[in-house]
Amino acid sequence: MSIIILVLATISFFCFTVLPTLKHRVLYALLSFAIMVLCTSAIILNDSYNFGMKVQTITQKQKLVSSVPDQLDVLLYQPLGTKSERVYLYHNSSDEKKLRQTKTTDTTTKYSQTDKTPQLVVTKERYVYQNGLSELFFGILGNNDRLKHQTYEFKLTDNWFVLSTKQAKQLKKLLKEHDTELKQNISQVIQQELVQKLQQNPTMSSSEREKLVKELQKQATQQLVKKLIAQVQASDS
To answer: Of 44, 65, 159, 219, whose Cβ has the fewest other Cβ atoms within 10 Å?
Structure first.
């Protein structure tokens, strides 16, 4: 509607300016010019300062799984330019083959710790028309639902690691090189912890023992991987 009114006002201004036989042409020319100025100002204010718009916030929670196809829970990122600029690479499902990535324009990305299920929370702020009148007047500009800002918040449990793609490659190489040594160390830790637990609870059932072994294995693996990650991060700093 704004463009149509502007075009009509421009045509009217031209007509009342160049056709001297029309009565009250000066008055109508000034009125047409005023409408032109108002429409042009409104369009500029809408485009540059979101006049006639309001902010709508939409929050979406997504499942989050490891970025790498192994037993480690890892969130990958790719540095861009300086170390503070990053694109995070993630999966919403273990069936996904291609990594998703965060946007970089008008975007804030952060991660926090949670004791619940890991997830990604995406919050988007968009400009939408303030009311029906704004939509009628500015709808022809096609600028509804413009993105103002979006936030990616990765909520991770304490067994997750945040690594760059370069660090992940280095870690994979170290795990392969020290595979036998790591397995031996893990087995030794499990045996030591298991003996202590059995002394504390001699009547432990086979199912409880099996569950305990899995938990000890997970803890021992995590501790050793943490040491390797610290080594990788130190060499990359």
So the answer is: 44
Q: Which of 21-30, 145-154, 163-172, 205-214 has the lowest mean pLDDT?
A: 21-30
> pLDDT, tens digit, for every residue of 221-236?
878 888 888 888 887 7
Phi-psi group of 24: left, alpha or beta (phi > 0 → left; psi -120 to 50 → alpha; rest → beta): left
**Residue 37 in tokens:** 């100025």
What gap in Å lies between CA 203 and CA 69, rounded to an integer? 38
DSSP strands (E only) in 12-118: 53-63, 73-80, 82-90, 100-101, 107-113
192 is written with which tokens?
A: 């030591």
Among 153, 185, 159, which Cα is nearest to 71's? 159
* Residue 152, CA distances (Å) to 106, 107, 155, 162 in order: 11, 8, 10, 15
Mean pLDDT confidence for 141-164: 92
What amino acid occupies position 220? A
**Residue tagged 């990359």 (tokens):** 236
Contact between residue 123 and residue 58 where contact means Cβ atoms under 8 Å apart: yes
Q: How far is Cα 40 from Cα 128, in angstroms, rounded to an integer?
A: 20
Strand partners, 100: 90
Query: Which residue bears the tokens 């023992």?
Result: 209
Structural contact between residues 103 and 190, judged by C-beta atoms closer than 8 angstroms: no
